[in-house]
Specification:
This protein is mainly α and 346 residues long. The chain contains 15 helices and no strands.
Length: 346
């Protein structure tokens, strides 16, 4: 076995071939960086040690779902972690016209595959029991939809904090923490270049630059290199980038694409621009598994910057969801109908 493969096996005995972006330690780092980037006036309940630990733990939740063999769950969950952006060209769907509606896109993709099957890889049904090979991924939709869920959670939380009981407030806060942690996984996925390209498990197709075709390249970048070179949250937290409110209108009109979806696509496009630089770094030797014999500082700097980018985007999405969330007017009406004795202002 090649030295590179031996080092990988020693470090990642439990690794599997399916695509994961950042192993659990990397995803925890992204969520922790996002917490560190929040402004002082963000709700204080999020910043308690218990809440921070919960959000960090939930960074790994969507990957834990992947460990369950139930095919309906795999079909729903796997495509949420990636988008093979080159597949949009094959489908004839320009990025600037990409719909924010997940199922509209799925119909468009199916129509393109039916009309031009020669542009798509032939599917082996024996290796496609979960029926995800027909797809090129739903990552921008999973991020955008989770943003909407978080905005909703903050909306009803603001109302419960005015008119609800202590138990209702506690439950609403727990819901917000859950969504924050889980959505962090997908935003973290979006900062890993191999999650926005068809070249996710080594270079495929024409390869004039002779990039690696190593099938475990993805898994090595996700966690092996981070573990080998000891990239930690303690090192990166002082460099956490502050959250910014994404400049989006309160609600798009029917003629506009959802602005958060547009922001997410810009984020993923910037990540896609890092695909070839990542492969070139690998060629230079700074990402090799036998890194004891290769300089690793440029590789560490590259991976660290991608983690920092993920933390910044996640923190900004959290902050924007909170700032844009208006108190739930319908819920307020319902709560005001209760007997005054049943209400408790915290």
């Amino acid at each position: 076995m090649h030295l590179r493969q031996l080092a990988f096996v020693a470090l990642l005995p439990l690794a599997v071939l399916d695509c994961r972006a950042w192993d659990y330690p990397g995803h925890r780092i992204v969520n922790q960086l996002a917490l560190a980037g929040l402004p002082a006036d963000f709700p204080s309940f999020v910043k308690t040690p218990e809440a921070a630990a919960r959000i960090a733990f939930l960074a790994g939740e969507p990957d834990r779902w992947r460990n369950t063999p139930d095919l309906p769950l795999q079909h729903e969950n796997k495509p949420d972690h990636y988008l093979d952006m080159e597949g949009l060209d094959d489908a004839g769907i320009p990025l600037e016209k990409l719909t924010e509606f997940r199922y509209v896109f799925a119909v468009q993709l199916a129509a393109a595959r039916a009309a031009h099957p020669e542009k798509f890889v032939v599917i082996n049904p024996d290796k496609n029991k979960d029926h995800v090979a027909e797809l090129i991924g739903f990552l921008p939709w999973s991020i955008t939809e989770n943003y909407g869920k978080l905005k909703s959670a903050f909306s009803y939380l603001k109302t419960y904090e005015q008119y609800g009981t202590p138990d209702e407030i506690a439950n609403a806060r727990a819901n917000a923490l859950y969504i924050m942690g889980v959505m962090g996984h997908y935003v973290g996925d979006g900062s890993q270049p191999l999650h926005v390209t068809k070249h996710h498990n080594g270079w495929v197709g024409d390869n004039p630059h002779h990039y690696t075709t190593w099938a475990r390249f993805h898994a090595w970048i996700d966690g092996g290199f981070i573990a080998k070179t000891n990239i930690t949250e303690a090192e990166l937290l002082p460099r956490a980038k502050p959250a910014r409110v994404l400049e989006t209108p309160a609600a798009p009109t029917s003629a506009e694409r959802d602005p958060i979806f547009t922001d997410v696509l810009a984020y993923l496009t910037a990540t896609h621009a890092q695909v070839e630089p990542l492969y070139r770094l690998d060629q230079s030797g700074v990402l090799k598994a036998d890194s004891n014999n290769n300089p690793t500082a440029p590789g560490r700097a590259y991976i660290s910057e991608q983690l920092l980018r993920g933390g910044e985007m996640l923190s900004s999405l959290w902050l924007t969801a909170y700032r844009k969330a208006q108190p739930d007017a319908y819920l307020r009406t319902q709560l005001l109908k209760r007997e005054p004795a049943a209400q408790a202002t915290p």
